[in-house]
Specification:
The protein is of the alpha+beta class and about 375 residues long. The chain is built from twelve helices and six strands.
């Protein structure tokens, strides 16, 4: 029953029988995005990011076979050796602890290993240590920033060439930056450390977001290709139809993608204690939700806002609204619902899905 209703809802959205004025109410979505961006920036300024030793440099100790996973003994053991170094302790699984500190010299590393082993009553051999220098950490940071810049430049070029419209490229770039800032800000609010896996998660959600945006833009281009050749619907109304037609697909894609990520985050990280996966899982979980929102409520509305500044589109919109007001006495709702299969000269909007007719059953042994 639920699947049937979902299918009927999607068919109604595609044909225009049911329509949501997503583009018509774009200012509402701009305000929502502005509030989320403001919150994210405040979190970044107030709380800031918590870089792992891969970026800041330091020492890392892994304690295996621990029966008591309380964190305070590790904190006391490290601060007794290096008072200026506040350690970060994470529980991995059920019997492993990971302790990260600031930069320590060789003597302090040996003393810290002995102190940690004594604090948890385990052999020193079960305490492994590794060291990351600050130069290597800064190199990782530089590569991450270069990767992000290269990604955004390539996206802008590909979108401009593919859609032959720089406005769509700008709208896609705005949506990507919107997703990145909100995801990073909310991640900072959670307080988890930023590791290389987190950066990979940020880049992955950008790829996911641009994929969803391209799907919507492809339908927008199809619906608005010959907007100026008809006088019934505005450019915004044709674009709004495209968003409604791809709405179910965007939601279904997001739900399917979020299911495994949710499993990794909530079951793997929280229940099973798989700390090595929680960084990328949290980045993906936040980013996919924000990316779906921007693909539907930000990318196309921004593209429409930019297109409506063109003299030809602006004049066409005024003409359609003036003709509608003269005929009905009102310009109607923020967007006039566009019906698939409607008589719109020069514009192909497809046709509604029609149920197959069944042949009537005939008694056996009788010919028509």
């Amino acid at each position: 029953m639920a699947a049937s209703r979902m299918s009927q809802w999607g068919n109604d959205l595609y044909t225009g029988k049911r329509s949501y004025a997503i583009v018509g109410h774009r200012r509402r979505w701009y305000y929502v995005s502005a509030a989320l961006l403001t919150l994210s920036v405040l979190l970044l300024v107030v709380r800031g990011l918590n870089p792992s030793i891969d970026f800041s440099g330091g020492a890392e100790f892994t304690l295996s076979g621990v029966s008591d996973t309380s964190q305070q003994p590790a904190v006391d053991a490290i601060t007794a050796i290096a008072p200026d170094s506040v350690p970060r302790v994470a529980v991995i699984g059920t019997s492993t602890l990971q302790v990260q500190t600031g930069t320590l010299d060789d003597a302090q590393v040996r003393q810290a290993a002995d102190a940690l082993a004594a604090a948890y009553s385990i052999p020193v051999a079960d305490v492994s240590s590794s060291f990351v220098g600050p130069n290597w950490g800064s190199d990782v940071t530089g590569k991450a920033l270069r990767g992000l810049i290269v990604f955004l430049v390539l996206v802008t070029l590909v979108m401009t060439v593919y859609f032959r419209a720089w406005r769509m490229a700008v709208a896609a770039l705005v949506a990507l930056l919107h997703d990145l800032v909100i995801t990073v800000g909310l991640y900072a609010g959670v307080g988890w450390e930023v590791s290389p896996a987190t950066v990979i998660g940020f880049l992955t959600i950008l790829g996911y977001s641009i994929y969803d945006t391209v799907v919507v833009f492809d339908k927008v281009r199809e619906n608005t290709a010959k907007t100026l050749e008809q006088k019934r619907y505005t450019h915004a109304e044709m674009a709004n139809l495209a968003v409604n037609q791809t709405l179910v697909r965007s939601i279904n894609t997001s739900v399917v993608a979020l299911l495994p990520v949710s499993g990794i985050l909530f079951i793997g990280a929280f229940l099973l204690g798989a700390g090595t996966l929680r960084d990328i899982a949290l980045a993906l979980f936040i980013g996919m939700i924000v990316g779906t929102f921007s693909s539907i409520f930000i990318a196309t509305p921004v593209a429409v806002t930019l297109r409506e500044r063109e003299p030809a589109i602006k004049a066409h919109t005024e003409m359609v609204l003036a003709a509608r007001q003269a005929a009905t006495g009102s310009t109607g709702t923020p967007l006039e619902p566009v019906r698939v299969g409607a008589s719109v000269p020069g514009v192909h909007l497809g046709t509604a899905a029609q149920p197959k007719r069944r042949k009537p059953n005939r008694p056996a042994g009788r010919k028509p």
